[in-house]
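2024-03-11 09:14:02 DEBUG pipeline.ingest accepted 1 chain
2024-03-11 09:14:02 DEBUG pipeline.ingest length=236
2024-03-11 09:14:03 DEBUG pipeline.predict start
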Amino acid sequence: MPANPVEERSYRRPSPPSVEELLKAYIIDHGFGPGDRLPTEATFCEKLGVSRNAIREAMRSLQSLGILEIRHGYGAYLSDVSLPRLDEGLTFWGKLLRRDGDDHVLRRIAEARSLIESSLVAEVCGRLTEADFTQLRECVAEIEAATAEGERAFEADRRFHQILYGPLDNWILSGFLRTLWDSTRTMLDKNPAADLANTPDDHRAIVDALEAGDPEAATKAMRTHFGPMRQGEYQD
């Protein structure tokens, strides 16, 4: 052995970046944002110097990661921030672990949402605008109308929670909460409708507390909102 051995290192030539990595680099370098339409396959072929099949395979891979959304007939778009692998995993375990009607994973998701959102709702107190409150009230009205028909206003509920935390301007939180919401929606779709009587009242109580500038009341209202689902009663 040499008296002063050199540090071990690889003398192999580095592998070239994959087409998937090239696509991600192109998107970053050209300043695309969530929701933006991306260049055509032909443009990517020309810019990256690879075949159309390679571009398509890379785009499918990025779609599975939640980075791209491919709309047939319209092209590819950069997705909103989300965590689809987590969503898929939660949905899988929710189906696998469901025993005798006990949605263990759904209740755990509700618990996580309750802990997170009951904290965040206090953070937005005093930061929502009149326009925000108008939109929140519109969502409550949609939820109330759907509840009166024995239905769930999933999209109104989703907008409600998105608007609520908009002032925080935190894309990581937004993506994580969107993922938990999507998992909740998927699991609730598999279950028969339960008692929805308090759903619009819960949402309205949250808005009332925020308009009154009362973070403690807003926190309490948010915990009340998630209480039934944490007990397995499936409110959204």
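2024-03-11 09:14:41 DEBUG pipeline.report The first strand starts at residue 68 and ends at 71.
2024-03-11 09:14:41 DEBUG pipeline.predict end
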